[in-house]
Amino acid sequence: MAKEMILRFSTLRNCYICKKIRMIQSMTGYGKSTCQHNHKTLTVEIRSLNSKTLDVNLKLPYIYKSKEQELRSLLGKKLSRGKVELLIAIESKDESAAYSLNTSLMKKYYLELTAFSREYDIPVTDSLLPAILRLPEVYTQETETLDQEEWGQLHKAVEEALEDTIRYRQSEGRHLEKDLRERIGKLKSLLTQIPPLEKQRREDIRKRLSAALEELKDVATPDPNRFEQELIYYLEKFDITEEMVRLEQHLDYFSDTMAESTSAGKKLGFITQEIGREINTIGSKANDAAIQQHVVRMKDELEKIKEQLMNIL
Question: What is the pTM of this model?
Fold first, then answer.
């Protein structure tokens, strides 16, 4: 009995974990982590925004340039898609650290800036030198090499910042999922309001055709059987039942796809294209003012869904 209870608890726990993992993620995220190494404080920041592909931009101190490819690979495996920026900063507390000026680089900066000033007739002031000193790589730390211990600590800090970024993405994803489910619910509600209008539309078509035939009785006498055949053909041509059924299936598929454990942003985008196609067909075939009002409201909700999908992983 105890074994059965443990097994049931384990099964329920696994199901809960599966449900917990299954969520959509936003591509908007932020993560930060710090670590200490000797006299240094290393700060790692990661920012991500929406993008069709993975676009990684690294801002690294010179000492870590040799690890650029490894960092890119780590970011790609964890984040998979989005415009991602990794910033690593060093704050040194060792006042005795040996620094020197990169005079050749300073000279290059000076010549380019003065040439630019002459070309555009901009006066060179005393603020030029302080400005040059603030430019990248002007200061260099002598005899600085990256040891294995420092790289290990930095690598751990990057992983912690990545985990923080993913948690942020998941949190944003929960808000997006809630909004999407509400909008899909509105689309379903609008869809359920169309069948009664469709029934009335059919009756209106029948009445209009009958009235038109009444006006033609003085000219010719129509065949009742032929009239029924033509009426059935006309109603079938403008029937929207299949489109409504397919639209309902697409809406259900959209909801199911949001629960998948894998990245669903692109797939959801393809489904919204099919949803839009069915909505447009319903509007064009119905040719009815009341149904057209519902179609316009459905298009409005669908556009809002498309806007949200642009930020989904």
Answer: 0.67
